[in-house]
Each structure stands twice: as structure tokens, then as C-alpha cells.
């Protein structure tokens, strides 16, 4: 049974500017995000990962690159199911403008009914998350996934077998770590939205390592 660590990419320039970036590969990490990436590397060193899967969107690799370079022995793979949602015509738009649209309330309250114009639906997002979980269900050890906010929220909803309309209740901030156990018999959320910018995170992560409090 794999233990899955889900890392949201560090703060990007789009996050900083309040822009819905979507799958834009030109978006880079902000100055704060680069610092978060270094902090993430320091804390992730404590975990013996057997595999790293990363969204093909550049800001995710930029986040994990220092760790990958420091641990070249860990198998690394880009995976399309971890990519950011395609928000279609909403990609690249300011969030404060989008929040004024009538569709915004639908996204917050009934996302299962919504498909972004010329983009992806939340039903499609859930399907690819479920496909990924099925693919890795028999992998042993600790697996690191580097992905995006909405994608990680959907991983939580799938693990807890919650409907799509509840997934917006989860908080997943930039450079945060979420930990789940996943197999066909036992699915559980161990920890959510842990900030890797916090110096005390090392103590909390150690509880989830072999021999730790929650081993």
C-alpha cells in the first residue's frame, strides 16, 4: 500500500498576482516561491521516497527541482494526470474579475455540474485523479506527487469518497504537504495542508515516518 505525499507547487507569479494560470507553462515561481522550494527540499530529505511523480506544468518541476537534484537515485516521472485543470477561456484571467461572474457561485457550490468554457469539467478532473490512483495502488513505499491546488483537493475527495460538490471545502495552499494512505481496502487522510515554510514542520513530518508516532 502506498503512502502518498502530495506537494502543491510553491507560490507562482500568477498566485502572487491573483491570476488563474491554468496549464500555462510560462508561469514561473515568485521570489517567495523560490524560497519555499528550498525549504521544501530541506524538509522532504527526511522521507525515503521510492518514486516522484510530477505535473508536466513547469512551476511544479521548478518547485521540486532542488530536491530532485539532491536525490538523483529516486525515480522521477512526469504524469499528465497531475497537470493543472484546463480552465479554458478563464485561463490567465484575474480571479477578482472571475469571482464576479454568475458561474462563480456554481463552481463553489455545485462544481459537479460545471465545465469551463473550452476547458475541462470537474467530472473530468475527478476521472483522471481516480485513474492515477488505480495506476499506483500496488506500488509500495512512500510516493511524492507534485501537483496543483484543485488536483490535490480532488485527491482528498476521492480518498474520503466524498462527492465532487464537497471538494472545495479543502484548503491546499502553495508549498503545502498533504499525506494520504491509499489502497483498495483502506483509504485514509493522515494530514492536510502542512506548510513547508514553517520551521516546525520537520517535527510533524517525523511522526509519519517509519517508527514515528503514526507509523
List the helices and strands and how they pair.
Elements: E1 3-8, H1 13-17, E2 19-20, H2 31-44, E3 49-54, H3 58-70, E4 75-78, E5 93-94, H4 95-98, H5 103-109, H6 122-136, E6 142-147, H7 149-159, E7 176-182, E8 187-195, H8 201-206
Parallel strand pairs: 1-6, 3-4, 3-6
Antiparallel strand pairs: 1-7, 2-5, 7-8
Helix pairs in contact: 2-3, 6-7
What tags apply to this protein structure?
two-stranded antiparallel sheet; alpha/beta; 35% helix; Rossmann fold; 6-stranded mixed sheet; 215 residues
Strand content: 15-25%
What's the average pLDDT? Answer: 90
Structural Rg: 17 Å
Domains, number: 1
Per CATH, the superfamily is Phosphoglycerate mutase-like
The profile of the biggest β sheet is: 6 strands, mixed
Count of helical stretches: 8
Question: If you had to describe this structure to a student in words, what would you say it looks like?
Answer:
By secondary structure, the chain is α/β, with parallel strands linked by helices. It has one domain (3-206): 3-Layer(aba) Sandwich (Rossmann fold), CATH 3.40.50.1240. Helix content is 35%, strand content 20%. The chain is built from 8 helices and 8 strands. The chain has helices spanning 13-17, 31-44, 58-70, 95-98, 103-109, 122-136, 149-159, 201-206, and strands at residues 3-8, 19-20, 49-54, 75-78, 93-94, 142-147, 176-182, 187-195. The strands form 2 sheets. It has a 6-stranded mixed sheet with strand order 4-3-6-1-7-8, sandwiched between helices. The protein has a two-stranded antiparallel ribbon with strand order 2-5. The relative contact order is 0.21.
Amino acid at each position: 500500500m502506498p503512502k502518498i505525499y502530495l506537494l502543491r507547487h510553491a507560490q507562482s507569479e500568477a498566485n502572487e498576482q491573483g491570476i488563474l494560470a491554468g496549464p500555462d507553462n510560462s508561469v514561473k515561481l515568485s521570489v517567495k516561491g523560490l524560497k519555499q522550494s528550498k525549504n521544501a527540499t530541506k524538509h522532504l530529505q527526511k522521507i525515503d521516497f521510492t518514486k516522484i511523480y510530477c505535473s508536466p506544468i513547469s512551476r511544479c518541476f521548478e518547485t521540486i527541482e532542488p530536491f530532485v537534484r539532491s536525490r538523483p537515485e529516486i525515480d522521477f516521472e512526469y504524469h499528465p494526470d497531475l497537470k493543472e485543470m484546463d480552465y479554458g477561456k478563464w485561463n490567465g484571467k484575474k480571479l477578482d474579475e472571475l469571482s464576479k461572474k454568475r458561474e462563480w457561485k456554481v463552481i463553489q457550490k455545485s462544481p459537479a455540474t460545471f465545465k469551463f468554457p473550452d476547458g475541462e469539467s470537474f467530472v473530468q478532473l475527478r476521472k483522471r485523479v481516480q485513474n492515477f490512483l488505480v495506476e499506483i495502488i500496488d506500488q509500495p513505499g512512500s510516493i511524492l506527487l507534485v501537483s496543483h491546488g484543485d488536483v490535490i483537493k480532488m485527491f482528498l475527495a476521492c480518498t474520503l469518497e466524498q462527492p465532487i460538490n464537497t471538494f472545495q471545502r479543502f484548503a491546499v495552499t502553495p508549498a503545502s504537504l498533504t499525506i494520504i494512505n491509499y489502497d483498495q481496502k483502506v483509504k485514509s487522510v493522515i494530514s492536510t495542508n502542512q506548510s513547508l515554510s514553517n520551521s516546525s514542520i520537520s517535527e510533524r513530518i517525523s511522526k509519519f515516518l517509519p517508527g514515528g508516532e503514526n507509523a
